[in-house]
Amino acid sequence: MTLSASVQSAPARAPTPVPARRRARGRLPLGLSVAALIAAVIAVLPLVYLAIRAGQLNAARVMDVLSRVRSFEQLGRSVLLAAVVTMGSLVLGVGSAWVVARTDVPLRRLWAVLAALPLAVPTYVAAYAWVAAIPNIAGFGGAALVLTVCCYPYVYLPVVATLRGVDPAWEEASRSAGVGPVGTFRRVTLRQIRPAAAAGSLLVALYVISDFGSVSILRYETLTVGIYRSFTNNPFDRTAPVVLSGLLVVVTAIIVIAEARSRGRGRYSRLGGGAARPAAVVPLGGRRTPVLAGMTALSGLALGVPAASLAFWLVIGRSGEMDVPEIFTAAATSAGLAVGGAVVTTVLALPVGLLAARHAGWFPRLMERAAYVGHAVPGVVVALSLVFFAVNYAFGLYQSVPLVLFAYAVLFLPLAVAGVHASAAQSPPALEEVARSLGSPPRQVLRRVTLPLAAPGIAAAAVLVFITCIKELTATLMLQPTGTSTLATELWTQTSVRAYAAAAPYAALLVLLSAVPAYLLGRRSHRWGVRHE
Amino acid sequence: MSELVVQALRKSFGPTEVLAGIDLTVPSGSLAAVLGPSGCGKTTLLRIVAGFERPDDGAVELAGRTVASRSVDLPPEKRRIGIVPQEGALFPHLSVDRNVGYGLRRGADRGRVAEVLELVGLAGYGDRMPHELSGGQQQRVAVARALAPRPSLILLDEPFSSLDTGLRAEVRADVRAALSADGATAVLVTHDQEEALSTADLVAVMRAGRMVQAASPRGLYLAPADLGVANFVGDTVLLDGTLSGRCAVTALGALAVRAPMPAGSAVRVVVRPEQLVLTADGDGVSARVRDQVFFGHDALVHLELSDGAVVTARSLDAAWAQPGLDVRLAVRGEVTCFSSQ
């Protein structure tokens, strides 16, 4: 419609806010809600039961455990290790991210891949490889080194993504305002990557605090090792492990709260349509050689040493006798438990994720939060709680496969729920509304539209859970039926008696299996990189 | 019979009243357009009729049955209302045949799928997947899918806004033909007045949650209920005037006023640009050509009246009306007046 001088336009009207239409109508589907509630109860059960047990403890004996010097040493070691590894990861992660994203370092693409690769190596496998190569490394130094070179990708990955996404116009504006390159890095670039670096660091801290496998292999007695010891040494003493678990949960809770708060803060990455121009590349000039040496050393420590050590012990092991049937049995047990874990976890995650993706309100939100409890509770605590629960209420379940699967479900529900939620949220609600209007009741819409569309994402989540289950050590070690063992527990057992050659095939298989999720994750992140209009 | 009756419908989202008592009647077999600027509540109205939102008050009746009110809330799947969303929203995992057949009972007459595809001009496309279709084709499939189960009512939510201008008119005409060939009752929601006027049997203008006027396209254009509607449905020339009998005396002379007459004597007069007739030495008042904007099919000529007011005339042949030329300006037909108070 054309307007000219005397053609009057309609009077301006106050814009009415458009209501949020992302989610379907308010009524919650009953079946899905009940199923989500069951999953949520399962997810919080270990923590709640532990709290109940803690409440029943004799106060005098609690004080006794708390006043032991050893308890405080263990707590102190956990906190110290977490602090050192987090600082180290922060420096290495930010540094390597900057080198990869912003400099003209030779072989840039290769470093980009190598810097993320340590995530594919389970830390206890790396710990085994290091201690098998240099037995003297056991202790604080070794634990700090191994965990740092294994964990820095948690910082590297988000920071490199942010550095690539940041609009270079800000840095250019700073430079043209008369601020030098160092000042610009400090005052502009660092501020932009701070949220990503903070979130990554807290993930590192959470990982280190909860880690049991690598610290126990490197013989550094942190709180997790202390809990495991007090549980195995004296199965009749329930006070010490419960009190120590309580301490551990408090520490992890602090980290998780800090992480959630850091994630809630603003994002600095560029939003909106169109990709930003790639940032200008900083010429390294004379610093090229030291930077290259540094990157080589980092990858050497994170990947080279473990790979060489593993290869060495594999060859030694082959010259000795390799117990092929035993390895095969362990692999089959691992696979069996992992399939069970993946199925149980994904089935439990489905209602929670679907509900959260499609319905607003406190109930879906609460169910999803509850399902995420496993993210914050260390495996050793979940396992301990389930042992006590089984011994008290269902002795038949003690050291049985269902209990192992229960633990897997609690621990990996967050992974599966995130996958289900993301894939269900990808299909527009309009599709489901159309299906309703064409005569399908909600249950049929779920079957004919929502699930088929979300299926690839759900399958990917299930595969991730499967492989994470295969790598799981702590809970499997504490809950597995006597007489059976998995790849992970067998590696741990052989390493703890210093049978490094015998442990090598298990380690190699675990690395092989862990490479798959890294590959899958990489592919998925590529897919997410594609803009969905 | 599948008449749609909406009565005193109210809906608020938090403190914002989106629908403030909407009444609308769409006779069986006709196509009504709900026309309004974005944010006027027209999509909310559509979603309440479809059953995706609940009204706070009021009622929706379809074919004599109450489907939504304070006490009744028939779920969407029981309403027999087909919807055609903005982007088509075809099921990406289903072929065209399966998309169209989604709402049909298993083992039902599969001939219906071919029939409606034929209606929208896509016979033979059944095996394609949605991503293999152009935007216009996807929209046609969405219409066919909505038609297939023979719903009592079809709701179209700005279904053509994502198409290019050229394609839009073509798809619109075809969809219009398909709807009437199937005898469907339909409600089209749009902010495009040209689309509403050219497609619908009945146009209902919504503004800020209220229904301002519902009339035939011609009635709406010629006799708008207020100045806002007059401006919204087409270009206007606005003049001040004084009522005198059945005429309004304006700078363009005494103009015949269409009933109903407004109260008072001071009025605002609405003239459509195409009512102004430009001649070299014919009837009317004198005016001077300022400039003109050429559109191919016609041109808008800006003219200055003797009192300095500038008006716009739409002319099919204005090549001779060069800037600076003195011409005569007459008004053809009746004009609409609104009280100035």
Give a structural overview.
Chain A contains 23 helices and no strands. By secondary structure, chain A is mainly α. Chain A has 2 domains: 29-45 and 321-527, MetI-like fold (Orthogonal Bundle); 68-271, MetI-like (MetI-like fold). In chain A, helix 5 packs across helix 6. The longest helix of chain A is centred in the middle third of the chain and has 35 residues, at 324-358. Chain A starts with 29 loop residues before the first helix and ends with a helix. The model of chain A is unreliable at 1-25, 266-275 and 525-533 (pLDDT under 50). Chain B has helices spanning 42-50, 96-101, 111-119, 135-147, 165-181, 193-199, 217-222, 227-233; strands spanning 4-13, 16-26, 31-35, 57-62, 65-68, 81-84, 153-157, 185-190, 202-207, 210-215, 237-244, 247-250, 253-256, 266-271, 276-279, 285-294, 299-305, 310-315, 326-331, 336-339. The model of chain B has no long low-confidence stretch (mean pLDDT 89). In chain B, the strands form 4 sheets. A 6-stranded mixed sheet of chain B has the order 6-7-8-3-9-10, sandwiched between helices. A 5-stranded antiparallel sheet of chain B has the order 13-12-11-14-20, with no helix packed on it. Chain B folds into 2 domains: 4-227, P-loop containing nucleotide triphosphate hydrolases (Rossmann fold, 3-Layer(aba) Sandwich); 235-339, Nucleic acid-binding proteins (OB fold (Dihydrolipoamide Acetyltransferase, E2P), Beta Barrel). At the A-B interface, helix 19 and helix 20 of A face helix 1, strand 6, helix 8 and strand 18 of B.
CATH architecture of the largest domain in chain A: Orthogonal Bundle
Determine the strand fraction of chain A and express it as a percent band. under 5%
**SSE run of chain B:** EEEHEEEHHHEHEHEEHHEEEEEEEEEE
How many β-strand runs of chain A?
0
- Overall geometric form of chain B: globular
Class derived from helix and strand content of chain B: alpha+beta
CATH fold descriptor of the largest domain in chain A? MetI-like fold
What distance separates the N and C termini of chain B?
A: 44 Å
What is the ordering of alpha helices and beta strands of chain A? HHHHHHHHHHHHHHHHHHHHHHH
